[in-house]
């Protein structure tokens, strides 16, 4: 990260108080200010962060912007009351298609493919949904735009919006190992690393001269000969690995013993593009040498500064990660270029509803069409695919009525719709 002038740049948007760490959606620290501008706006020194801004020398991370290299970012404050969705109109919290929902066939298989800095699986569509039926919704094929509040089927480069709690994503979900899996060197070995199915049981390694820790959770019926998908969960600023494990943003219960999860702890709770990229490299070496991993299906999910760190990892290690998910990202310098990678991003209306600070950059890198996507209605959410993306590298945007959290609820619902939305996206690869 580069040092930024100590002069103040002020944003035009209002300031809200949000948290940044872990599954609870809150960090300790100063209040987070949300700016609605594009990437590159500025942040003041009064411990106020912005979405889409650069970080000043006072060390405050921004959502969607850069961080000063000579300062320590800090995002925090309790989650604003605006993070709670308004009470208007309850909607379904289920992200799975309704009984009148998607009829789909096919899915995606991955194979080989070289990429700068590593190998990256190139995917082919065996038979995406080409007509599926829905009750109360519609069918979309090719480049047709579909918006459904009931159920719909969408394929290829189509835009499929899910409103309330309904999700429409092309391709079949997969569980367990794929037929074209690339087994790691740990396959066949009895694990020496520590598993954390409930209480934290940290693993440690030395990275860049420091002792660092991380959690692992593998399936209850772990098979050392079976290559598993690996998902790395990255906490928000001032957080730690136990903010993510053992539920891993709510994905572990949905994974049905198909996936291994890892949660690293940032040094001092704050992610660094320089040192933590190497730290994640070291974790992957250790995990892939000890456990049976499908190295063609390593994925990322992060919140707040952890989401911005997922951008850095995805773009600085092309071919290593198959897909990435980020919630309310900011606080680590934005990549300036990236090879295409599937990406799902989210941000609340209380934070500015800024697809321009979260997902537009991936849509650009993936070659998708960038247009203004649907905005969540009061008390609800809407998730929409960008059109024109390569089938292998979709980009999906989720707008919701709420604040700074990786686990927003619709009005009247006691649980978040987000885990099912994320799992549907990641498990298609």
Structural class: alpha/beta
Cα separation of the termini? 32 Å
In the CATH classification, which architecture applies?
Answer: 3-Layer(aba) Sandwich
Order of secondary-structure elements: EEEEEEEEEEEEEHEHEHEEHHEEH
Low-confidence stretches: 1-160, 165-177
What Rg is obtained from the alpha carbons, in whole angstroms?
20 Å
CATH fold description: Rossmann fold
Helix content: 10-25%
Main pleated-sheet profile: 11 strands, mixed
Number of strands: 19
Strand content: 15-25%
Average the pLDDT over all residues and give the rounded result: 72
Total number of distinct structural domains: 1
Query: So how many helices?
Result: 6
> What's the CATH first level?
Alpha Beta
CATH homologous superfamily classification: Alpha/Beta hydrolase fold, catalytic domain
Enumerate the strands of the largest sheet in spatial order, edge to edge or round the barrel. Answer: 8-10-18-19-17-16-15-13-14-12-11
